[in-house]
Each structure stands twice: as C-alpha cells, then as structure tokens.
Design goal:
binds calcium ion, Neuraminidase, binds MU-OXO-diiron, six-stranded mixed sheet, nine-stranded antiparallel sheet, mainly beta
C-alpha cells in the first residue's frame, strides 16, 4: 500500500547550487564536480582562523564497556547497567478523569487512546518537580508521539477504513506529559497526576508570531488564522531556559492529499495520495482541495508548558515552516535566545532563529513571547570551511513582493522557498542539532542521502562530501567569536559514518571506534558527552550494508578525541531516539520507536510481528514503542 516514510521523495528542485562559494574559495569547480564516485576532500576544522571559541572542551570520561552489534529482538546495555521499560504506547498517561488500560489486541477506542501514550515516541525532556528545583527523584517527562502505524493501531489494521480509525490515529499523535518518580532503583509513572496530559492531533493550539492571522493561515473552521486543531508528526524537540518544551512538526505533508498540488504544495511534498494516512477520506480538513490553507498550519515549532496542563500550546511561526526535525536552544553572549533547527528531507537546509529580545530569568511573562520576535536565518556552507547565516527577512536578500513574498508571514510560511531564493546549501537530510554545553560548538546529524550524485540530482559538495551517502555524517561548526548569534561560522565534518570493512572504500567512513549508520538523535549531556542515536530504515538494515552494524543503536562520542563507543542496541527494526537525563546524570531516559517496523508495509498488523514483539513478548500482542529508564547498578553517573 504505502511506502515507508523514509521514501518521502525530495522536493527541492530549486536551481540554487548546493553551495555557491566555490569560486570565492579559490578552488576550481573541477575539483568538486569531478567527483566520479570519490569523496570530496574536507576542510580542516583545526586550521580555521577567526572562529575559535574562548573555552576548550573538557575531555569527558567515557567509562562503560562497549556493547557489540546486535540483531536480536532485545535491548542491550553495557555490563553494570540496567534498562527499565517505563511508558509504552497505550499505557495510561495518568489523567484523573480516566486511565484506561491498554488492550493488547488494539481494540481500544479513540477516546481511550486520547488518555494513553501515543504511538512512536521520539524526543523526550525531563522537567524536575517542583518547577525550578533540581530534583532527580521526581519530575515530568514530556515526549513526542511522531506518527502511527495503523497496521498496529487497529485490530485489523487498515483492511477497513473508518472515521473512528481516523480519530484514533489522530489521538495517537502529539505529545505526552507524564509525572515520574524514582523509588529505590526503579522509576514509576505517577497515576493519577495533576500534570498528566495528552496533546493530540485534535487539541486546540494557538498560533503566534508573524504568520498568525495571515490570510495564508485562515480556514473555514478558523477564519481568524490564529487557532489550529492538533500538532502532527512531532519528531525531535527541545527545551527553553524558562522551562517549556518545544515539539517540532516534521513530515506534516503526509497527512494531506491534494488532487492537483500547487507549486507551494509540491515544494513541501504534498501529493495527490498523501503518504498513506488516509485521513482525508473521513476528515475534510486534510483534503487540500477543500481546505488549501490547512497544511500551512503545520510544519511549525510548538511551545508547551509542561507544568500547566491548562495552558494552550503555541505554534511559533517566527521560526519558519518546514519539516522541523528539532529546536535546539542556546543563549547568545548578550542573552538573546538562539534556536537551531534542521529541515529533514534530502537536499533541504539548516536554519537558526535569533530572538530580538534577551532572556530574562526574572521575567517569566516576557519570556513567554520571546520566540515570536527575531530573525530567521538559513545556512550557507562554503567550500573553504567558512559559512554564513543569511537572514530570511522580508525586503532583504530578494525576499520581496516582486519575488512572491508579500510580507514576513509569507517568508515564514514558505521558508523553504525563501531558502531557495537566498542560495542556502542543500544538505543530506539535517536531523538533530546539539550544542556543546561549554564550547558552544554545534553538531548536526545528516542522516543519509542516497540520491546525492544521481542523475539530475546535485553531486557531492564540501559539506556533503559523499555521493550515494547511505550511512550519513555529522557536521559541526563554530560560530564567529564563539557567539551563537553570529552570522559567520567555521565548519568541518566531525565524522563520516560507515562500515570499516565495507568492500566499497567510499562507504567505510572514518569512525574512530564503533561503526554505525544513519545518525539521527544527537544530544550533549552536561559532562559534554555527545550521544548519537541511529535511525536506519528497516530495509537498509536487512541489506548487506548493515550486516556488521546490526540494529539501530546509541553511541557515546568524546568530541575532544573523536572516539565513539556503542552504548546500547535496540530491538529489531526499532529506531533509537530521544534522550534526556535527570540533573544528577544518574538516570538516562531514551525512547525506542517503532520496534518491528516493516520494510514496506504499514497497514498490515502481521508484518511488524514478524520482526519484533518487544517489549511485552506477548504472542497475541503487538510491538510497542516505549520510554526506557537506564541506570547504573551502582547508582553512578551514566556514561562515566
Ligand atoms: Fe522523524 Fe527526521 O526524523
Ligand atoms: Ca529523527
Ligand atoms: Ca530519521
Ligand atoms: Ca522516526
């Protein structure tokens, strides 16, 4: 029926080159265009001048024994560690009004699903309780539920298709907030909890920032253009210094169907037959012919106050509309807030947003609107290892009415096209971005791009140096003067993922340590350990290219030495994604997404069960995404 979600084809047909600074760098085009299967040579980060940070990275101790690659249907952690399954798809969230138990045959109703964990956990953040404390014993976990496998969600999968199934699918999307506490060495979900909350594909959500109230966002159901129902395809996320959770809408295009897609719909991948959710068959707002502006109301960063279940989530349009993978927040030298975000599709861009105003820890009310005012930038990586952030501001850099941008609302809604106009660099699927807690160096996973170098597609460039980049890489940059608000940076490639024993030299990568492929989740802990999580597609893992790499996994990197060590392997055909720690560093929460993912079919309940029955191992049940709490048996700091 449908293709796997990784198949969503690239939609950046803009003519802008993958980078246009080749000549400025004084390097001949021949060197870059004559790749003929070879890897483009890389700039050297260490020799770049003018962008040094003023603090050296401390070397974090990575003390665990690495785990070997695995193809088993189980979760493996190093000796001396214990992993506890904490919160699975279908577990009650803990709302006092109702805590329906999971039905292992998937016969639960849409109403029950809206009171339970959604499907396909992704980003996760720990918020201590009480608010403002540093408790590592009690807190809130806010997490994303990215999408649904409707084959698993309903007893007969998608063999029949009804309005009730659409409602249940919408109820399995969104975000959970659950209260958790540590009792001895075990975590438990507190039920009921006054903080417990589900935000779904039908929850009212406010719209703020430059696009709020724009004609582009008005629909029949919402003539104000200021309130939308639901948040969808919540993938990676982030957190703010003022204690809110950021959840990011990624492949929103897949929910919409357009009989004859417009140019702007095509630019975001909205197609005639959607991506298989079939919501448009029972909910007209997902039929773009009926409601063409509804899709403009998705693809945003959404801010949620986890401490106040009555507070409406807010879509922050100033940060631009694209397939937001995440929203990594850091502070500029002068206290302004900087948010990094990748657009996860082949040949798409990396963005950052810098607020107009400064973060003030003493002014909670002012912080609530910080993300509504500022400048959105897009990245251009030059071949010489330099780079610049180009402002996506109406009236500048060609973003004028004459070029189809009537105002800043249009720049935000059509951020991809704005990136095309200013000549941003086409990347190999930007996923998570992480900022080193001390040096402020920024790391970004580029998960893969098998199409780079194919006929009619862009070839390799300095920042995306491999054709047929099946294993992906991690790029990093230093902002000028070590200031996240800077508009120039220096970059290099931190690591090319791969298999050292691969018969094709171009696929061997340069990993110092344990090999991996398709880096996706990326997160620095407080000690400066860079945690890498992988998301190879099921059909890739079934191929010879993954024979020595195995199931998706989580690794720890020492960015001072480049050493990378495998920490965890997931069950079969899962993705490992989302990571957060308690303030004491003694509990790591990780999400295991889509165990049993079928290589090509998401409508048949039997297919995933051929691969996985994690974590319940119930022959009559279904594989379930879940949050896992990981601790050392001696209670020590995780990873040290
Ligand atoms: Fe949902 Fe790009 O990962
Ligand atoms: Ca991801
Ligand atoms: Ca991914
Ligand atoms: Ca995923």
């Amino acid at each position: 029926m449908t293709k796997a979600f990784d198949d969503l084809c690239e939609s950046n047909t803009s003519p802008n080159p993958t980078f246009d600074d080749v000549l400025r760098a004084g390097i001949s085009r021949r060197r870059f265009l004559g790749y003929a299967g070879a890897i483009v040579s890389l700039p050297t980060f260490a020799t770049l001048a003018g962008c040094a940070t003023d603090r050296a990275a401390p070397a974090p101790v990575i003390g665990f024994q690495p785990v070997p690659p695995s193809t088993a249907d189980t979760l493996v952690v190093p000796p001396g560690y214990r992993a506890q399954v904490l919160y699975r798809w279908g577990d009650p969230v803990g709302v006092a009004a109702g805590m329906p138990a999971f039905r292992s045959d998937a016969s639960g109703s849409a109403e029950e699903q809206a009171l339970q964990a959604g499907m396909h956990h992704d980003a996760i953040e720990y918020f201590p309780l009480p608010a403002g404390a540093a408790s590592s014993m009690r807190g809130l976990l806010a997490m994303n539920h990215e999408y649904t496998d409707d084959g698993l969600l309903h007893p007969d999968g998608m063999k029949t298709w009804t309005a009730e199934k659409v409602r249940k699918s919408q109820a399995a999307h969104g975000v959970s907030v659950v209260e958790v506490e540590l009792a001895g060495a075990e975590w438990r979900v507190v039920r009921p909890s006054r903080y417990a909350r589900r935000i779904t594909g039908a929850t009212p959500i406010a719209i703020s920032g430059p696009a709020a109230g724009s004609e582009l966002l008005k629909t029949a159901a919402d003539p104000s253009g200021r309130e939308v129902l639901g948040t969808l395809n919540n993938c990676a996320g982030g957190r703010t210094p003022w204690g809110t959770y950021l959840t990011c809408e990624e492949n929103f295009n897949g929910y919409f169907s357009a009989a004859t897609p417009s140019e702007s719909e095509r630019r975001y991948g909205i197609r005639k037959d959607g991506a298989g959710y079939r919501w448009d068959e029972h909910d007209a707002r997902f039929d773009a012919a009926t409601e063409p502006n509804e899709a403009n109301r998705f693809g945003w960063v959404v801010e949620i106050d986890p401490y106040d279940p009555a507070a409406a989530p807010v879509k922050r349009t100033a940060l631009g509309r694209f397939k937001h993978e995440g929203a990594m927040v850091t502070l500029a030298r002068d206290g302004r807030v900087v948010v990094y975000s990748g657009d996860d599709e082949r040949f798409e861009y990396i963005y950052k947003f810098v607020t107009r105003d400064r973060y003030d820890p003493a002014n909670a009310a002012a912080n609530r609107t910080l993300l509504d005012h500022g400048t959105l930038y897009v990245a251009r990586f030059a071949a010489d290892g330099g780079g610049e952030w180009i402002a996506l501001e109406h009236g500048r850099n060609g973003l004028t009415a004459a070029n189809g941008f009537a105002d800043q609302a249009a720049v935000c809604v059509f951020a991809r096209r704005a990136g095309d106009v200013v000549g941003a660099t086409k990347m190999d699927r930007p996923e998570w971005i992480a900022v080193h807690p001390v040096t402020k160096e920024v790391y970004c996973t580029l998960t893969n791009n098998a199409d780079r170098g194919k006929e009619k597609q862009p070839g390799p460039d300095a920042a995306n140096p491999r054709p047929a980049n099946i294993y992906g890489h991690i790029i990093r940059w230093r902002e000028a003067g070590g200031d996240p608000a800077a508009t120039r940076f220096a970059w290099d490639v931190f690591v090319l993922a791969g298999d050292k024993q691969h018969p094709d030299p171009a696929k061997r990568g340069n990993v110092k340590g344990d090999d991996f492929g398709c880096p996706d989740g990326l997160w620095f802990d407080a000690r400066g350990v860079l945690w890498i999580q992988t998301d190879a597609a099921a059909r890739a893992m079934a191929s010879e290219d993954w024979r020595r790499i195995g199931n998706n996994q989580m690794l720890a990197a020492d960015v001072t030495t480049g050493e990378i060590r495998r920490f965890l392997t997931g069950p079969r055909n899962c993705e490992v994604t989302g990571a957060t720690m308690t303030p004491d560093g003694r509990t790591l929460f990780v999400n295991i997404q889509h165990p049993g993912e079928a290589p090509s079919e998401r409508g048949d309940p039997e297919k995933p069960r051929q691969f996985s029955s994690w974590p319940d191992f119930d022959p009559a049940g279904r594989p379930r995404s879940a949050t896992v709490a990981i601790r050392r048996e001696d209670g020590g700091v995780v990873g040290s």
